[in-house]
Specification:
This protein has 264 residues and is mostly helical. The chain has eight helices and no strands. The protein starts with a helix and ends with a helix.
C-alpha cells in the first residue's frame, strides 16, 4: 500500500474515533448523575419519548455525531487514541487472518453467514418486540426502550453508510483479501465498517442499558459478539471492519439512551 494511502487511512480512523468517543462523552456530561439503570426523570405520559419524536431525535443525533470532533478535550481523548491504535493493529493483520486456509471453507463461510444474518434479524426485531410488549402491557419503560432501540439502529446505519462511502474498502473476497481502501470500483459495497456489527451492537447497547441485569447484559453483548465473529468467519468482513462497527454501534446506542430516555 502506498504511503499516501496509509496516511489517509490513519487520519480517517482518527477522525472517526474522535467522533464516536466524543458523542458518548458529550452525552455523559449532560447526565453525569444518570446510572446505567434508568431513573425517573419526568412524570406524565405527555413527556415520554414517542415514535413522533424519532425523526427529530435522529437529526439531533446526526448533528451531534458529525460535529463532535469540535468538542474533543484532553479528558476524553484516551478512548479515541485507543480505538485508533487498536484499529490500526487490526488492519495490519487483516490480510493474514482472512488468507488463513481455515477461513477458506465454503461450508463454514455459509453457516457463519446464515448465523450472522439470523442474529442481525433478531436485533432488528428486538426493539419492535419490546415496543409491542410495552404497548400491550401499558409499560412506558418498555415502549420507550423499543423506540430508542430502533432510533439507535437507524442512527448507526446512517453513520455506517457514510463511512462506507468514505472508506471504499474491498471485501475479503476481492483481490486475494488485500483489503485496499479508497477503491472507486467498490461502489456501495464497501467492507468498512460492518453493518451487521453496528446494528447488533447499537441495539445491544440500548437493551443492556435499559435492562441492566447481569443475564440481560451477558445475553445482549454475547449475541452481538457472535454477530461480529460470524461476519469474519463468513469472510464477509475483515477483523478491523467488525471492530469499528462494534465500537461505533455500542457508543451510539449508549449515547441515544443517555440523551433521550425519559421513562423510569
Amino acid at each position: 500500500m502506498q504511503h499516501h494511502s496509509v496516511r489517509r487511512i490513519f487520519f480517517f480512523l482518527a477522525a472517526l474515533s474522535f467522533s464516536v468517543f466524543t458523542i458518548r462523552a458529550s452525552a455523559q456530561s449532560t447526565a453525569d448523575s444518570l446510572p446505567d439503570a434508568p431513573s425517573p426523570q419526568i412524570q406524565g405520559n405527555d413527556n415520554l419519548v414517542t415514535i413522533r419524536d424519532t425523526p427529530s431525535h435522529i437529526l439531533e443525533d446526526q448533528r451531534a455525531i458529525w460535529t463532535s470532533p469540535a468538542r474533543i478535550r484532553e479528558s476524553n481523548a484516551l478512548g479515541p487514541v485507543a480505538l485508533v491504535l487498536a484499529t490500526t493493529v487490526a488492519i495490519t493483520i487483516d490480510h493474514q487472518v482472512m488468507s488463513s486456509s481455515r477461513l477458506q471453507n465454503p461450508s463454514l463461510n455459509n453457516e457463519a453467514s446464515t448465523a450472522s444474518n439470523a442474529l442481525e434479524g433478531g436485533f432488528i426485531a428486538a426493539p419492535a418486540a419490546i415496543f409491542a410488549v410495552g404497548a400491550f402491557r401499558d409499560d412506558d419503560h418498555a415502549t420507550e426502550s423499543g423506540i430508542l432501540g430502533g432510533e439507535a439502529i437507524l442512527d448507526s446505519l446512517a453513520v455506517s453508510e457514510v463511512l462506507k462511502l468514505i472508506s471504499l474498502r474491498e471485501r475479503p473476497t476481492d483481490d486475494n483479501a488485500k483489503g485496499k481502501f479508497f477503491q472507486s470500483s467498490v461502489g456501495f459495497d464497501s467492507s468498512f465498517p460492518s453493518n451487521h456489527a453496528i446494528v447488533a451492537w447499537s441495539a445491544a447497547a440500548v437493551i443492556a442499558s435499559e435492562y441492566n441485569g447481569p443475564l440481560t447484559q451477558i445475553s445482549a453483548y454475547g449475541l452481538a459478539t457472535g454477530v461480529s465473529v460470524a461476519r469474519v468467519l463468513a469472510r464477509q468482513h475483515f477483523p478491523s471492519d467488525v471492530l469499528v462497527g462494534s465500537a461505533v454501534g455500542w457508543m451510539i446506542g449508549r449515547y441515544v439512551v443517555h440523551k433521550h430516555r425519559r421513562a423510569g
